[in-house]
Specification:
Blueprint lengths: L12 E4 L10 H18 L3 E4 L12 E2 L5
Length: 70
Amino acid sequence: FAGPMVDQQVTLSIGVATMPSPAYDDIDSLLRAADEALYQAKADGRNRVAISDADGTTARPKTATLPAAG
């Protein structure tokens, strides 16, 4: 970055999918689930984590707010 990083705010959205799971039979389906969870986290707001369920769906209740820095 050019210049000082004063008063800069960084936000983070994370999508999570884990293996082993009966919902994912290959790496492509695992990555697709993580990607869908990421977009759910982004849709829910800044500083969120969304976790894909074992059945391959992304549940809203498993979205968590990350604490603010400071």
